Amino acid sequence: MAIRDDFPILKREVNGFPLIYLDNAATTQKPQVVLDAMNDYYTSSNANVHRAVHTLAGEATEGYEACRQRLKSWFNADRAVITSGTTEAINLVAHAWGRANLVEGDVIVLTEMEHHSDIVPWQMLAEERKVELRYVPVLEDFTLDMDVFAASLDDAKLVCVVHTSNVLGVRNPLEEIIQLAHSNGAYVLIDAAQGVPHEQIDFKESGADFMAFSAHKMCGPTGIGALLVNADVFETMQPFMGGGDMIETVTVDGSTYQTNEHKFEAGTPRIAEAIGWCAAFDWMAKLDLEKEHKRLVEIARWVAEQLRSMGIPVYGRHEEKDSAVVSFLHPTIHSEDLAHLLDARGFAVRTGHHCAQPLLHRLGINGTVRASFYLYNSMEEAEYFVEQLKEITERFG
Ligand SMILES: Cc1ncc(COP(=O)(O)O)c(C=O)c1O
Which of 66, 98, 223, 353 could form a disulfide with 94 if both were Cys (CB 3.0 to 4.6 A apart)? Predict the structure, then answer.
């Protein structure tokens, strides 16, 4: 499999077995070109950005700003603020937009499917600004209750919704959500952490006002992500982190700020990471993402079907609007024990609440085992996974 050859880590063994990495919803592996790009930067161009006129500073600035341009062209966006990841991007909206635009009595609509990153910042803001939070429930079939969503929009100023659930793999009906929210005068934030690795999203066409995501879930480095913002909405945001790089002038009496994205990027930014992320985009641009996603969804559907036929409850739809995630709960082997038994055979899977405790509470469980597939995973790995699960069940179940 050609894609696989680009990932040096996939050649390693774990506990004497070939590594089978199925924890991609947590973070993805990095192709050699990303590692090389970051290494080259530190080896030959390392300098700080935006200020100095020397050659190295010019190269570093060019590399960093190339990442922003890549974000804008990949997602068709006018404004791309570079952050540390999805979490910081959502917190940026809460601080820079929420504090400037929300008042007591305003409503923010969330869903029970959100990652903690798209719940906690709003709870903090709600406490500070006395805004109301409304949660859209998740139904028995693992979809959002769209009737409750429509009924929740009175006085709503913002709707925050996850593109694809990191626990269920369910892709939400964003088109309908955005249309309904806008027709009720609410802005929309999409947590696309699990969406952008699998889907080429046109931000402007989506109509969303904010979109947050992380590089590390799409073969890029950790510690970097982005917030895309609608150009008009961008003008209504106020900086919340002060420091170098975000200012225009500073006197002892006060400061003026940059007017572009730098306004929200105080301090030395993530230069090597931006250069690495650019390399990841270049690498991904050579793939047919839609075809790959289809292949991964088929793998996940097959695994889900096999687990169900073994009497293992699976959480998620795996019929339509799904992604490459299979969350399950073994009826007789504790999740942590199962993860250890799998690790002993070279498999990396995730266990626990996946930073989505309200969702697990709604499902009436404390956690799941999650296998999530990405570009370098194969059907053979999935078959081996199911075979080993059967063997573990026979011996320990
Ligand atoms: C749906 C979703 N939102 C937000 C996040 C947070 O991403 P990060 O930790 O990169 O900020 C994750 C990470 O697992 C996620 O899956």
Answer: 98
User: What residues are annotated to the active site?
Assistant: 355
Sign of the Cα torsion 101, 103, 106, 108 reads positive
What residue's CA is closest to ligand 1, atom 12?
193
Check pLDDT > 90 for residue 382.
yes
Give the global pTM: 0.97
Q: Where are the domains positioned within the chain?
A: 2-22+288-396, 34-285
d(CA 96, CA 12): 44
Q: Fold identical between 2-22+288-396 and 34-285? A: no
Mean pLDDT of 40-54: 94
Q: How far is the CA of 193 from the centre of ligand 1 (A)?
A: 5
Can you name the residues that pair with 251 across neighbouring β-strands?
A: 254
- CATH class name, domain 34-285: alpha beta
Say if residues 219 and 28 touch (Cβ distance below 8 Å): yes
Instruction: Decide: 28 in ligand 1 pocket, CB within 6 A.
Output: no
Q: According to the model, what pLDDT value does residue 1 have?
A: 66
Is the pLDDT score of 192 beyond 80?
yes
Cα separation, 100 vs 337, in Å, equals: 48
How much of the chain, in percent, has pLDDT values that exceed 70?
A: 100
The mean pLDDT value of the chain amounts to 97
Whether ligand 1 lies within 6 angstroms of the CB of 86 is answered as yes
Answer whether 194 contacts ligand 1 (Cβ < 6 A).
yes
| Mean pLDDT of the 37-50 span | 96
> Residue whose CA is closest, atom 9 of ligand 1?
87
Mind listing the pLDDT tens digit for each residue in 260-272? 999 999 999 999 9
The residue whose CA has the least distance to atom 14 of ligand 1 is 26
193 Cβ inside 6 Å of ligand 1: yes
Q: Is residue 202 helix, strand or coil?
A: coil
**Which atom number of ligand 1 is nearest to the Cα of residue 164?**
1
d(CA 234, CA 152): 25
Q: Which two tokens stand for residue 118?
A: 């798209």
CATH superfamily of 2-22+288-396: Aspartate Aminotransferase, domain 1 (3.90.1150.10)
Q: How many CB atoms lie within 10 A of CB 223?
A: 16
Separation of CA 313 and ligand 1 centre (Å): 25
Q: 114 CB under 6 A from ligand 1?
A: no
